[in-house]
Amino acid sequence: LLERVIRDGKRVGLHLEKEKQDRIKEINSKMSSLGIEFQNNMNEDKTALYFSTEQLKGCSEDFIKGLETNEEGKHKITLQYPCLYPVLKQCCVEATRKQLLITRYSMCKDLNTPILEELVKLRAEKAALLGYPTHSDFILDARMAKTKDTVRKFLTDMVTKMKEPLKAEFEGFLKLKERECKENGEEFSGTIQPWDIYHYMQITEKEQYSVDTEQLKQYFPMDVVTKGLLQIYQDIFNLRFEEISDPAAWHPEVKLFSVFDKTTSAFLGQFYMDLHP
Prior knowledge:
The chain is mainly alpha-helical.
């Protein structure tokens, strides 16, 4: 325990002169701010693509009904989780999946690339101030692996062991893709691309393991699941939630709750719940 306390003290620079300690504090504060800015950029991104019903072929009827449409009757797909992954999993039109995933991977590129570049420099500077060759060495020092060589060996061994199972799985994906291309009259490329993975994983789960997420939904209605989750939090933390009627919010479906200590009834605060961000 004492060794761990000493190690943790060194990792925040307590053994260094005040000037270096102050610089480390500045770096930590800057990295925290950059991390928040990076995530805010992702959360607030309003990029959306519009697809016809035909271009969303394979997506469930309930999903399509819940989408906004423009004047041309095309459906709005954002890059956020509730829109993105149902399309990547269900849509059998490869061009749609490709356009959506490439756009997602390019999301906030101009805003976040400079942030990442600055974070890399700050991490390297902090590691050097604390006496580590690289940021990786700094992180691993407090973890079980300890060294980059250990991590590299672990990953290399894992890749070696997974090569044959992965090859077999991708061969299965290729057969599914070839079949689907024939059914839809599309040209079969003979390759599995990043935008294919989620789609053919879902088909494999459904056909080989009888796992159908759309069928499972009926056993987990939103209201029942939400109520159960909120009750768990209340029980664990000894809280009481009270929903506020007609809250001032950015969407009519957003809910506002007041939080009270269950024992003392003291007011602790409020929180919004937006299940469709």
